[in-house]
Amino acid sequence: MQNKTVSAGVILIGDELLSGRTQDTNLVTIARWLEPLGVQIGEARIVADDAKIISSAVRRFSDQFDYVFTTGGIGPTHDDITADCIASAFGLGISERADAIDALLERYEVSELNTARRRMARIPDGASLIKNPVSQAPGFQTKNVFTLAGVPSIMRGMLPDIEHRIEGGAKVFSRTVTAAGIGEGDAAAQLAEIEKNHVDVSIGSYPFFNAELRGVNFVARGRDEAVLEAAERALKDMVSHLGG
Amino acid sequence: MQNKTVSAGVILIGDELLSGRTQDTNLVTIARWLEPLGVQIGEARIVADDAKIISSAVRRFSDQFDYVFTTGGIGPTHDDITADCIASAFGLGISERADAIDALLERYEVSELNTARRRMARIPDGASLIKNPVSQAPGFQTKNVFTLAGVPSIMRGMLPDIEHRIEGGAKVFSRTVTAAGIGEGDAAAQLAEIEKNHVDVSIGSYPFFNAELRGVNFVARGRDEAVLEAAERALKDMVSHLGG
Q1: Residue B64 has pLDDT above 60, yes or no
Q2: Contact B138, B132 (CB under 8 A)
Q3: CA angle, B152 as apex, A13 and A219 as ends, to 5°?
Q4: Closest CA to B12 of B46, B41, B42, B40
Q5: A207 contacts in B (CB within 8 Å)?
Q6: Contact at 8 Å (CB) between A223 and A171?
Q7: CA-based nearest residue in chain B for residue A11
Q8: Angle between helices B51-64 and B82-89 (to 10 degrees)
């Protein structure tokens, strides 16, 4: 398992993410949480509250990646359609579940459990629940797809109940070498050379600009720490030769 | 043109967006800039520095949407492959262009224009340049696809040179009604009713939680301001009946 590459796809659901109303932060949260587990995100899609598009993205990502995470669309209102989309993606039935109602009863009085709130207990057949310690309405896992809340604090609260369900792979480590006062273009040729000379290390180069400083962060990523260390030394040598 | 729906797809390119290293902000910037032009984003994809995936996303979005925006991957280093991917997506050649070299010469001395930096002047055949007043290396437009920088300040700097190239549609307006102290589940049934009663208005419901307050923002969006105003009144009535 330690040398296996394990991948994930992320589907961020909600019109508000595409209209500019809401800045997504869930993708970065999930990526950083997955990193120590040895899982890398291969692609993310931000999709509207549209049943056909959501179902088709879920189906495709479920085939393509080891794990899939969806965020958003599991609340009580008419635009919360994710559970139905997951069921339809896999041709499963969906119905109100007693264990999900129990979770809601930790928060709501029986008299508050109206039709809308009961919708949050509709779970695709065969899914297992994901505990929500923040607002109780559960997420759920269907095959390799984890369906999480969209509100960032609630989404984060669900991650601990998933961690033990993930079979991670080889962890990816990264080293960053920051070089002030040099340009990307000065380093480009040597950068490609360093990447070529260090097996399975990928090197990214990220310029920064602010009022006081311009420079570049060179980030080497790879699974073998010894090779990565050698790449880091090569990057540092390059930067000092360039006068950075 | 005023009643037409005009759509856009956005492709955010870069390993750093998927590894959790970098929080994207370009999507929200583009969405907010498009709103007054009457263009709505239909889907966004965040993809790795992978030529096949980038090309196929570009091809697909170019067919599917009126306009496509890509960000990232147009710098001088080996991981900057977007220009080649755009060319290959449309079966176009790509070569160094004199007008793009001219743009680079506004920033660099001839002696600084090494092979790496000259790569930033490689433009797909037939594309028109997009001016970059921040760091000079141009973006470009190929058919309905606008290829922009990934660094947010540079990306923003390119937008003014695109605005006149967009034929917008009917502007979408939005009204937000904030209700403190009520839950989404209390409003859900009436919300669906209000949406049904107001033609072409879509209503989203976004709960918020903080130390002092919980509540919901109800956002009505639509193209007809009179209908939208009626929906807003209905939302306010609903909230006051619910005691919010």
Answers
A1: yes
A2: yes
A3: 90
A4: B46
A5: 75, 151
A6: yes
A7: B45
A8: 50
pLDDT tens digits along B136-190: 999 999 999 999 999 999 999 999 999 999 998 888 889 999 998 888 888 999 9
* Residues of chain B with C-beta less than 8 angstroms from the C-beta of A221: 15, 19
Structure tokens at B129: 């340049």
Q: List the domains of chain B with CATH numbers.
A: 6-165 (3.40.980.10), 173-241 (3.30.70.2860)
Minimum Cα–Cα distance from A35: chain B residue? B19
Q: What is the DSSP string of A85-145?
A: HHHHHTT--EEE-HHHHHHHHTTS-GGG--HHHHGGGEEETT-EEE--TTT---EEEETTE
Q: Is B153 on the interface with A (CB under 8 A)?
A: yes
Residue recorded with tokens 């419901």: B205
Q: Do A42 and B18 touch (CB under 8 A)?
A: yes
Q: Measured between CB atoms, does A197 come within 8 Å of chain B?
A: no
Question: What's the token pair of residue B84?
Answer: 């080649």
- Measured between CA atoms, the residue of chain B closest to residue A43 is B47
Whether residue B177 contacts residue B234, with contact meaning beta carbons closer than 8 Å, is answered with no
